[in-house]
Specification:
The complex is a heterodimer of chains A (85) and B (146). Chain A is α+β, with helices and mostly antiparallel strands. Chain A has three helices and five strands; from the N terminus they run βαβααβββ. A five-stranded mixed β-sheet of chain A has the order 2-1-5-3-4. In chain A, strand 3 and strand 4 form a beta hairpin. In chain A, 31% of the residues are buried. Chain B has 146 residues and is an alpha+beta fold. The chains are: A alpha+beta (85), B alpha+beta (146). At the A-B interface, loops of A face strand 3, helix 2, helix 3 and strand 7 of B.
Chain lengths: 85, 146
């Protein structure tokens, strides 16, 4: 099922786009698996995701750990740790 | 009453104060954060996650309203490009007594630093860099747990 992927801050800059709609294989069931799958798709994705420890994620706009499920998700965001306020 | 605003426009403190005072409580506390001018920063840019940011700020405000029985809680946050000296964030609380208003105000500013999806990018001269998270922000947010 198609899912919107959003990127923010330096992750967005490294990937080169802020948003894309993709349709990952059904066996991609977690954020971490999605990141691995995306990293294999292009050099830009691979570079953006090189250090998994610096990545954070949200599924349908809720912050989640990288081992969280994406089954049924409509929107997954991948970004650096927040620095706001 | 909870008011959340994430906007590129300048923060009008007079308008925000009037809104909080209109809640009619005995105590109002506010915090204003400014872009620091003393460390060579030329501009500060705030990126956020539209929709998720407002939801996160609303959740933090709702938890403060419940915990301190607030009559009003306001969080106004700038996004986009700012100059040193400009207001970046305004937090206001209204409660029956000063201790609740002050504590809730401190809680809101501590928690929004770690709970809301904002990212800062600083420009110094020709150098532009994303700001790294600070451990002191995590520690400040954690003191409200339990």
């Amino acid at each position: 099922m198609a899912v919107d992927i959003l990127y923010f801050a330096w992750v967005r800059e490294a990937v080169g786009i802020g948003q894309e709609r993709i349709d990952p294989p059904a066996e991609i069931a977690t954020v971490a698996a999605l990141i691995d799958w995306l990293a294999a798709r292009s050099e830009d994705h691979a570079r953006a995701f090189a250090d998994r420890g610096r990545l954070r994620a949200a599924v349908d706009q809720v912050f989640v750990p990288l081992d969280a499920s994406i089954v049924g998700a409509r929107e997954v965001a991948i970004f650096p740790p927040v620095t706001g306020g | 009453m909870i008011r959340i605003l994430v906007d590129a426009a300048a923060i009008d403190v007079a308008v925000e104060m009037a809104t909080i005072e209109a809640a009619g409580a005995g105590a109002v506390a506010t915090f204003t954060g400014l872009v620091r001018a003393d460390d060579g920063v030329g501009t500060l840019e705030l990126e956020h996650y539209p929709g998720a940011t407002e939801a996160a700020l609303h959740a933090v405000a709702a938890s403060a309203v419940e915990r301190w029985s607030l009559l009003a809680a306001t969080i106004v946050h700038r996004v986009g490009v700012m100059q040193p000296g400009e207001r970046i964030v305004f937090v206001g609380t209204s409660a029956a007594h000063r201790s609740a208003a002050l504590e809730a105000c401190a809680f809101l500013i501590d928690r929004l630093k770690t709970d809301a999806p904002f990212w800062k990018r600083e420009t110094r001269g020709s150098d532009t860099r994303w700001v790294e998270p600070r451990g002191t922000d995590d520690a400040a947010a954690k003191r409200w747990e339990g």
